[in-house]
Amino acid sequence: MDFSWMAWTWPTAIFFMTILALLVGMAVWEYVSPGGNPRVGVLRFETTRGDRLFVSLLGSAFINLAWLGLVGPNLWWALALSVVYAIGVFRYV
Amino acid sequence: MDKTWNNKAWFMVLPVLLLVAFSAVIPLMTVVNYSVQDTFGNNQFFWAGTEWYQEMLHSERFHTALLRNLLFSFTILAIEVPLGILIALNMPRKGWGVPVCLVLMALPLLIPWNVVGTIWQVFGRVDIGLLGRTLSQLGIHYNYVQNPLHAWITVIVMDVWHWTSLVVLLCYAGLVSIPDAFYQAAKIDGASRWAIFRYIQLPKMNRVLLIAVLLRFMDSFMIYTEPFVVTGGGPGNSTTFLSIDLVKMAVGQFDLGPAAAMSIIYFLIILALSWVFYTVMTSYDAER
Questions:
Q1: For residues B26-43, average pLDDT
Q2: Is the dihedral of CA B211, B213, B215, B216 positive or negative?
Q3: Is the dihedral of CA B146, B147, B150, B151 positive or negative?
Q4: Which CDD domains does its entry note (chain B) (predicted)?
Q5: Which of B8, B33, B66 should be substituted to probe chain A, the one whose Cβ sees the most A Cβ atoms within 10 Å?
């Protein structure tokens, strides 16, 4: 099938493949350890690991937008900050 | 009874997953793809990177449309939710009044958005509209075509007229599900009207109110047709909400890249605010 009319680019393809890999990883994690590991963290309400992934991805999107708006177009540091933020969310939220 | 785990059941949701992928996920991915490219038509695209996002983040036009939309959403929530609760509390619980009230409440919800817009567009006109004509004969200089404040009041009143019924019906459903035993216990304790509302009715309506607030917030944040038909985004840009601005950019100016970047930022804001509303209200529910 020809998808050239959709004008896909490698950077966007890599972006979506990363999201897909994260979702597959979460599904495997759930298969190995079912139940979603619910717990009450620093936000004082119960979250599962799916909630923590959602908070990580949404927060990362805003970190990247804030970086673009306040610092500049080089997003590698924003990406590093997002990884640190995601680790923090999975550890403490 | 033990739960039965059968992972083959996941295949049952495969058709809906495919449908959602085709109708929602892939179009969203396409928007992300457009947001990092530029086009001059003829299906030729050029890589633009994060340029459109930067442009949007520094665009005064986007900032003012966003602020306008937030102001609109919070204003209609502040009016529709208390008003909806008040009406639901005063609706009859038995007798012939119940179906009459329910039908009257459901009527505005059945009218399509563009028809509601047209009704209010004509209703508010100073030359032929009942509202506009009556107000001007009372000596009130009302003109939603020229005065931004009047345009705002018209759009807000129109939204309240159209959507308060939804809050009323949801609250009413919550209220009728409360067993009589609760009211009898409150009567024995000598509870005041306010105490009954605060400790019996409001907690029982919490879940439906969550749905009402979420639906009204998301709908009002995406509002397009009604204000577009009534004011066309004017006077000036005073009622140009995000979706109206987005359509102007994507369809009117054919700036697909900036419009796609704006859509993504718009989507992320809706997602974040809806998540905050949902989390705050469900946590409050869980605490109780």
A1: 90
A2: positive
A3: positive
A4: TM_PBP2
A5: B33
Distance, in angstroms, between A7 CA and closest chain B CA? 7
Output the pTM of the full model: 0.84
Question: Which residues, including other chains, have CB under 8 Å from residue B199's CB and lie 6 or more apart?
Answer: B186, B191
Tell me: the pLDDT tens digits for B144-177? 999 999 999 999 999 999 999 999 999 999 999 8
Q: Return the CATH number at B207.
A: 1.10.3720.10
- Tokens matching residue A30: 């759930």
pLDDT score for B210: 86
d(CA A70, CA A64): 10
d(C-alpha B92, C-alpha A74), whole Å: 62
Same-domain pairing of A48 and A63: yes
Instruction: Report the percent of chain B where pLDDT is more than 90.
Output: 71
Please give the residue range of the domain that contains residue A76. 41-92
Q: Which amino acid is at B148?
A: P
